[in-house]
Design a protein that fits this description.
Strand order of the largest sheet of chain A: 4-3-2-1-6-5
Distance between the termini of chain A: 84 Å
Low-confidence stretches of chain B: 1-14, 380-392
Number of strands of chain A: 10
Distance between the termini of chain B: 5 Å
Low-confidence stretches of chain A: none
Strand order of the largest sheet of chain B: 2-3-4-5-6-7-8
Number of domains of chain B: 1
Mean pLDDT of chain B: 80
Order of helices and strands of chain A: EEEEEEHHHHEHEEEHHHHHH
Bound molecules: zinc ion
Mean pLDDT of chain A: 87
Number of helices of chain A: 11
Largest sheet of chain A: 6 strands, antiparallel
Helix content of chain B: 55-70%
Shape of chain A: rod-shaped
Strand content of chain A: 5-15%
Number of strands of chain B: 12
Number of domains of chain A: 2
Order of helices and strands of chain B: EEHHEEHHEEHHEEEHHEEHHEHH
Oligomer: heterodimer
Largest sheet of chain B: 7 strands, antiparallel
Chain lengths: ~350, ~400
């Protein structure tokens, strides 16, 4: 039995502090209080023991509602250690700087792993679960919305030119997907307002929209379908096949939730900026994947991937204000043009 | 963050006894809380969230042990296993809400209404749970506000909410959303009601805030002390008017700055394309965040001062003189450091804001606290009360 420790006792009925002495015997806390000859006894597991810390005062919470206040923290710490009252794991962990450093490293590693693997993987799995009917209805809804806004107008290209593009794409798809099933797609050519410029995009439903401006930009010579245009469509086919649209929605959602949890309750604006940067990073990843897909399709269909260099060059001349090499402080949704051009150039060899 | 502030303190009964100041001290350190926070966060992630209530108890106990009133700390008696039940209930409710949106809009509406209907009861249970499990000098705090009054206090916000839901259901149900003309007409018919909802919400907000604060502060119990709240709706409307005025001035200044700065930057940087646009965006964000910090600080500080200056009990008088300027400066400093450290500064920020807010509060007591005894009503309640809130250990806030 070890030496007694004096402390303050609040009995739970009166606000007055009373002096008491604590003892320890075979895993039982003994407490001598004024006007009693026998000590009170408390089984160790029923007492809430204080965690060790540099600041703040230690207290024991007793099962009968009483509280023991320990004005001298270090005296209590050595007394408790001598008694063998263990600190909980989390407290021991937080007490050592080495443990905290390890926790910090693990925490950062977990966040990085979530960013690098867990979120993209989860988004891919989730996107795979979305039934085709839902994807189609999303696509229809978006198309209808774009038409209602007047952003997609009937094409002014000749019927023959559009038919030629349809056929060339169909032929490319036939050649490129000899062994694997081709993604379900539907090619649309629309005239778009000037600000949309030469552009192409894909929807989860497999609807691929190409603007008149893009067609005229890439095939000034009229009849023959340009390889660059086929490359752009192949890139969009990559988005469709990999379900990039849905995946980005899920990825962005997960990042938003996590950023909100991390600091969002402190400042939503603060949480928003890094979330946007991470989302843009995922988008750039999808663009690279779509480029890789385009490269494979073009090669399998016997189209020279260097045609894509013409696409970037023409885009630069036609839309000088686009600045294809701006990284926008990490907020750009596409990789820079020079990187993408190098990719197709290297891939052509 | 108001936890340390949401507890009133103690008081005697004698009227001619001497008055004295109860010293308040907050001794927590940012670096120490940082260590607790990091370990908690990691354990929460590793256990997929199950450690949350345990983490919360560890955090509360650290802050309580560092909140010294007259040199005696607060103590938290909550059982994390009980609190786990509360967490699971909340998870079920909010998870249900999140998932129901995918099932059908009607399911989402149903769960939303259920949540809104349960909210005041849950909130009251949570306040009650926290106070019943907090003690000072061995005596438990208590909360006497009943469920009916919780609903009454929140009623002013339910009204505009009801208008939104009703207008949405009435005008939009059965409208073919593929028909743009019908959709446009329905939205136009709905618009006045939505506007009415917003105006009503703005008009009723100060009243609601006052009712909520009064409900909370009058419900506080300790020993034989009962909270009293003397601020009327008028004081809160005055505060609301000032707040709206400040917001207007702030946003007008922001607009003027933007109108001047954007062309100016264009001249300075020339046409840098995307990069220039992002730079302007960043600059704008900084000013915007500054304004939001100021407004947030103004709201927090003024509501704290207004509420606590109006609060007393038989033997206790509270006062609060939190300065808007120092809170704004602190919030901005915290934001900056949080950006620089990618959020790792957060525990330091929590501690320093709490220290500032607590440091602004003073408590005066009449008579001798040593003579105070646990109220008979409170102790029977504490032992017999396995009520829903206690059973589930619902503990929201902070
Ligand atoms: Zn793309």
């Amino acid at each position: 039995m070890q030496a007694r420790l004096s402390a303050q006792w609040f009995d739970g009925v009166s606000a007055q502090a009373q002096s008491c002495e604590l003892g320890w015997q075979d895993g039982t806390l003994l407490m001598w209080v004024p006007d009693a000859t026998e000590p009170r006894r408390y089984a160790s597991r029923l007492v809430v023991w204080p965690e060790r810390s540099r600041h703040g005062l230690r207290q024991l919470l007793l099962p009968d509602g009483a509280v023991v206040s320990l004005p001298d923290s270090s005296a209590w710490d050595s007394w408790a250690e001598a008694a063998g009252i263990a600190q909980p794991l989390a407290a021991r962990w937080a007490m050592s700087w080495r443990g905290v450093a390890l926790a910090l490293v693990l925490l950062v590693a977990t966040v990085l792993a979530a960013w690098r693997w867990a979120i993209p993987w989860g988004a891919q799995e989730l996107a795979g679960w979305v039934p085709e009917s839902v994807q189609i209805s999303i696509g229809e809804r978006v198309m209808r919305d774009l038409e209602q806004r007047g952003w997609l107008l009937p094409s002014e290209l000749s019927r023959e030119a559009r038919q030629g593009i349809d056929d060339a794409v169909a032929q490319m798809v036939r050649k490129a997907y000899r062994d694997t099933p081709a993604p379900r797609y539907q090619l649309h050519i629309y005239k778009a307002p000037r600000w949309l410029g030469p552009n192409a995009f894909a929807l989860p439903s497999g609807d691929i929209v190409v603007t008149d401006a893009l067609v005229t930009l890439l095939q000034s010579d009229g009849d023959s379908v340009s390889s660059a245009l086929l490359g752009v469509v192949a890139h969009e086919l990559g988005h469709v096949r990999e379900r990039h649209g849905l995946r980005l929605v899920f990825e962005a959602g997960a990042v938003g939730v996590l950023a909100g949890w991390w600091i969002g309750d402190y400042s939503a604006v603060l949480a928003g900026a890094p979330a946007l940067a991470v989302q843009a990073g995922y988008s750039r990843g999808h663009e690279r994947d779509a480029d890789a897909h385009a490269l494979r399709v073009m090669k399998d269909a016997g189209i020279d991937p260097r045609a894509m260099l013409q696409f970037f060059q023409a885009l630069k001349e036609a839309v000088p204000e686009r600045d294809g090499d701006a990284t926008a402080f990490g907020l750009a949704t596409h990789p820079v043009d020079s990187e993408r051009m190098r990719f197709f150039e290297d891939g052509a060899r | 963050m108001s936890e340390a502030l949401t507890k009133p303190q103690e008081a005697p009964v004698n009227n001619d006894s001497p008055k004295s100041q109860l010293a308040l001290a907050f001794t927590a350190s940012g670096s120490e809380y940082f260590r607790i926070w990091v370990v908690n966060l990691l354990l929460i992630i590793v256990t997929l969230g199950f450690f949350m209530p345990f983490a919360k108890v560890r955090r509360l106990r650290y802050f309580y042990a560092n909140t010294l009133i007259d040199q005696q700390p607060l103590a938290f008696h909550g059982d994390p296993w009980k609190m786990l039940r509360g967490y699971l209930l909340m998870l079920l409710l909010f998870g249900g809400y999140a998932v129901s949106g995918y099932v059908s809009p009607w399911a989402a509406l149903g769960v939303f209404l259920l949540l809104a209907l349960l909210w005041p009861a849950l909130w009251r249970s949570s306040v009650r749970f926290r106070l019943h499990n907090t003690s000072w000098r061995g005596l438990r705090f208590g909360f006497a506000g009943d469920t009916a009054d919780a609903y009454k206090a929140m009623l002013p916000l339910f009204l505009p909410g009801l208008i939104f839901v009703a207008a949405n259901t009435w005008f939009l149900s059965g409208v073919d959303d593929s028909d743009p003309q019908a959709m446009k007409e329905a939205l136009e018919a709905q618009l006045p009601w939505i506007l009415l909802g917003f105006v009503l919400m703005a008009a009723l907000f100060p009243l609601c805030l006052q009712m909520i604060k009064r409900y909370q502060h009058q419900g506080y119990r300790y020993a034989d002390q009962q909270g009293q709240f003397s601020a009327g709706a008028g004081a809160f409307y005055k505060f609301g008017a000032k707040f709206i005025g400040l917001s207007l001035v702030g946003f007008i200044c922001l607009g003027v700055t933007a109108a001047v700065a954007v062309p100016l930057l264009g001249v300075v940087f020339g046409n840098t394309g995307m990069g220039g646009a992002v730079l302007i965006g960043l600059l704008f964000t900084v000013v915007y965040v500054g304004l939001l910090s100021l407004l947030g600080a103004y709201f927090t500080a003024r509501v704290q001062n207004l509420s606590w200056n109006a609060t007393r009990s038989q033997a206790l008088v509270f006062s609060s003189s939190l300065s808007v300027a120092s809170l704004t400066a602190l919030i901005m400093k915290n934001l900056l450091l949080m950006i620089v450290t990618l959020g790792l500064y957060r525990p330091f920020a929590v501690v320093n804001v709490m220290a500032l807010r607590l440091g602004a509060v003073e408590v005066e007591v009449e008579g001798n606290i040593d003579a105070w005894r646990a109220s008979a009503a409170l102790s029977t309640e504490a032992t017999s009360g396995e009520m829903a809130g206690d059973f589930f250990g619902i503990d929201m806030g902070l």
